[in-house]
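Build the 3D complex.
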Amino acid sequence: MKIHEYQAKKILSEWGVPVPVGTVVSRPEDAVAAVRDLGGKAVIKAQVHAGGRGKAGGVRVVLSPEEAQDFAKSLLGNNLVTFQTGPEGVPVNSLLIEELVDIETELYLGMVIDGSEKGVVAIASEAGGVDIEAVANETPEKILRTAVDPVLGLQPYQGRYLAYSLNIKDDLVRPISTLIGNLYKAFESKDFSLAEINPLVITTDNRILALDAKLSFDDDAMFRHSDLVTLHDPKQEDPLEIQARKYNISYVKLEGDVGCMVNGAGLAMATMDVVLSTGAQPANFLDVGGGADEEKISKAIDIILSDANVKRILINIFGGIVRCDVVARGIMMAAESTNHQMP
Ligand code: GDP
Ligand code: MN
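Done.
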């Protein structure tokens, strides 16, 4: 589960990660008031579940309440398209209004569950900011990683190792390695699957602040975090994916035109590879799982057909974990209810 930046910052600040002063608003007039409260100057940031906002015009420094009003009006109620969203973008329903910070250095700090390390990897770079993807491609030596032992947790020497790699002033090494330790404690306690602070900035007055924050949580651990479940914002998700979740179907929309209905995640991925190898493009990943009944199969077809790009459907069912006659009946049920002529 993903959450918004303002929610992530609230959680991180509770765990000892310093963040800028800010408020979240959902009406232009409140944006104006918030900017006024901050002395007439602020940063306005679109709250969407996607990065790349800076480059897409979703983050702006405003120098007057009037400018804040114009910018807030242009964002609220519209979709923001960034390189991390689809072409239709994601809706902007709230804005984070923050104190304007004078940046001296932009650093990168991240933690993610890494399958090959079988645990959390902490990542840091002196080259933070909106071009971290280019840094990863062109100068990967500027990105340092250290794998955390899941039993021991992040050790102080690992925090120091990353902090020293950032080429920062000596007096900042200790607070930044403490911050890295705090981030790991939050990661473990709250079952993050990803935490990213980009940029972590050093200000001209020598403060350290998480200027941006992105958190995702492990869906399989949500049952033990009832306080986090309420942070979910369904408006940021694809409506088809929400519908699929209701029926316990794993569905991910893709860009092609071959609708795929498969059971088993591995078979579903292999089927997408087969589609690609023939020169076609899958319209979706869809796993109906084992033990699906007729209604679920029929719903899966409905979901596939709700995607206007779909021109044909490929069904690949492994009869070992679901009965093929049940699948066939579900397909007929969908065909009767929608009258589709899809090959
Ligand atoms: P992202 O593009 O979605 O990752 O959005 P960020 O929150 O990282 O903001 C993008 C960029 O806006 C940052 O890398 C900063 O360069 C700039 N920015 C954000 N807040 C401030 C601020 O308070 N002062 C200044 N000068 N720049 C800011
Ligand atoms: Mn960022």
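The two ends are 35 Å apart (CA to CA).
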